[in-house]
Backbone:
């Protein structure tokens, strides 16, 4: 069936998965004052729907946990992840725990769509 997804790797600014065809899925991030900011997620079109973004966000959560960091979900996918995984919301910065994540998700999607125009 489906082949094993390559492992998540990272640099000082990006978590990424390099696929066998050379394509890369990535999650740009920044560590600032005890916070891991999840800035932008991208998955190449031919690899969408395979759980790559989820795998990178979950790697980022382990990365944050090991370093005592809280999460600030900036990109729409990061917000979506916490919307769908309420049990992980304790990792968010306190101000994000009480927000309406559905509304924040819609807002982020609209902002990202404007950038692509």
Residues:
């Amino acid at each position: 069936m489906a082949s094993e997804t390559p492992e998540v790797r990272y640099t000082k600014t990006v978590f990424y998965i390099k696929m066998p065809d050379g394509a890369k899925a990535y999650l740009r991030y920044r560590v600032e004052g005890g916070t891991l900011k999840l800035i932008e997620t991208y998955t190449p079109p031919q690899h969408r729907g395979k759980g790559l973004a989820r795998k990178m966000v979950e790697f980022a959560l382990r990365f944050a946990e090991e370093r005592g960091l809280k999460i600030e979900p900036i990109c729409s996918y990061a917000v979506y992840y916490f919307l769908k995984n309420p049990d992980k919301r304790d990792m968010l910065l306190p101000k994000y725990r009480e927000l309406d994540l559905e509304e924040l998700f819609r807002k982020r999607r609209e902002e990202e769509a404007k950038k692509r125009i």
User: Anything to note?
Assistant: The chain has one domain: 9-116. The two ends are 37 Å apart (CA to CA).
